[in-house]
Amino acid sequence: MLEADAGVGIFFGISCGLCLGWVLRGRYGGFANLKNLAEKIPTYSPGGHGDYKMVLVVRHDLGMGKGKIAAQCSHAAVGLYRQLIHSNSEVIKNWERSSCPKVVVKAPDEDTLRELAQKARGFGIETCLISDAGRTQIAPGSRTVLGLGPGPIDDMNQVTGHLKLY
Question: Domain of life of the organism in this record (predicted)?
Answer without folding.
Answer: Eukaryota
